[in-house]
Amino acid sequence: MQVALDDYVWAAGVATDLVNTAPEVWHGEDKLPDLDSLVAFAELHSILVDTRPSDLRAVHRLRVTVRDLIDHPNRAGLVTGATALTSAIGVLSLDASSDHARWTASLRPGATVSDSFSLVCGVGILGAVRALGAERFRACGAPVCRGAFIDTTRPGRRRYCMPGLCGNRVNVANHRARRATTHTPRGHQA
C-alpha cells in the first residue's frame, strides 16, 4: 500500500471517519464491533490488506490515539503524534515519472491493517497541520454529539463531524423550534 503525501485531504477524512466509529460518538454503539465490520470499513476506504483477529484490538487502540490527537490540537503535539503513527513506513520515495512529482510512503512487508490505518491517519494529520494549521482539528458542533473531525474544507468553516447526520439533526431541531414559536394552533387565533 502506498499513500501519496499530498493526499492528506483523503487521509484526514479516513482519520475523521475512524475516530467517529467509537462508542462514545454513537451513544454506546461501536461501529467497529468485529472483524467483519473492520474489513468493510477498510474496503470502504480502499485500504486492502489481510486481517487477523488481533487487528481489531489494534485498530481500536489506534482510534483512541488519533482521537486524542484531534482533541488536543497543538501543533507540536500533532506533529509528534502523527510522526509516531507513520513509523510503520517501510519506504519513502519520490515518483518523478509524471509531470507532478509525488512523495509516497509505502508500508513495510507484512504490515497489518492497523499499520495501514496508522500510516494513513499520520499522513492526514501531518498534511492538515502543514497545509491548514492546528485550528482545523475540532469537536463536533452538534450539542448532543461527541464526534471530532479534521476540517479540510477550503473555507475552513465545517462545524460537524458528519454533516449529513449531525448537521441535519441540528437543522431539523432549529426548524422545529422556529416553527413551534411562530405556529399557533387552529382555533386559538386572536
Low-confidence stretches: none
Profile the largest sheet: 3 strands, antiparallel
Rg (C-alpha, Å): 20 Å
Can you count the helices? 6
CATH superfamily placement: Jann2411-like domain
Overall shape: it is globular
Counting helices, strands and paired strands, the structural category is: mainly alpha
In the CATH scheme, what's the topology name?
Jann2411-like fold
Number of domains: 1
| Quantity of strands, as a count | 5
Mean pLDDT: 87
Terminal residue distance: 70 Å
The amount of beta strand, in percent, is 5-15%
Give the second-level CATH assignment, the architecture.
Answer: Orthogonal Bundle
Helix content: 40-55%
CATH class: Mainly Alpha
User: Helices and strands, in N-to-C order?
Assistant: EHHHHEEHEEH
Q: Order of strands across the widest beta sheet?
A: 1-3-2
Task: Please sum up the structure shown.
The protein is mostly helical. Helices cover 48% and strands 12% of the residues.
Description:
- With 190 residues, this protein is mostly helical.
- The chain has a single domain (2-161), classed as Jann2411-like domain (Jann2411-like fold, Orthogonal Bundle), CATH 1.10.3300.
- The protein contains 6 helices and 5 strands, in the order E-H-H-H-H-E-E-H-E-E-H.
- It has helices spanning 8-19, 35-44, 53-71, 75-85, 113-131, 163-182, and strands at residues 2-4, 89-95, 102-107, 137-139, 148-150.
- A 3-stranded antiparallel beta sheet has the order 1-3-2, with helices on one face.
- The longest helix is centred in the last third of the chain and has 20 residues, at 163-182.
- The protein is globular.
